[in-house]
Amino acid sequence: xxxRICAFIMTLTLALSLAAxxxxxxxxxxxxxxxxxxxxxxxxxxxxEGFASDEAMEKATLxxxxxxxxxxxxxxxxxxxxxxxxxxxxxEFVIKSVEKDETGYTLTGEWYTVYLYQNDAGAxxxxxxxxxxxxxxxxxxxxxxxxxxxxxxxxDPETQTPKELTLNDLLTRxxxxxxxxxxxxxxxxxxxxxxxxxxxxxxxxxx
Length: 207
Prior knowledge:
This protein is an alpha+beta fold. It has helices spanning 2-23, 33-39, 74-77, 167-175, and strands spanning 43-53, 60-69, 71-72, 85-88, 91-94, 97-101, 104-108, 113-118, 124-128, 135-145, 150-154, 163-165, 186-190, 196-202. The protein is built from four helices and 14 strands. A hairpin with a 4-residue loop joins strand 7 and strand 8 (113-118).
């Protein structure tokens, strides 16, 4: 009798354990409304700054700095003259001469040249003579990469169609320093719920 009772108890314990395992769940915090409203349905210029993941690198939190290109008011740019100073990338650029053509303005300084082009909003942005663009850090974010995340690799200038890769591919390349993420080559996009949908890694001279 005792053996039967022990066997019954062991069977019951095993059944309860299996039931608990089946019903186990993981609860994650809800995305704050202010973050969802900021990200939902939007695309950003960004720089990937790191990640935290599981050992298999199939789940991860990605860290980005959101950036915007430095721009200048049209009226101020169009009145620039030799002797004026323009702030470029945090440095004072003293203008030696100004030339205007159909594409914008060429500013010659003591050590290098800056080109100013107009964007769709009518403001001007700067490009150096080495094709360097200048960006401001706007804010940093950390976001979860879900199963729907896609890493789009467009870093090969000879290929028109991007490679659709996985989160694991992204993290592996990042660890191996095969990715040099910068505002010149990184764009991230979010779906209507504020969930990270894609990271696109574009070609740039500094990849």
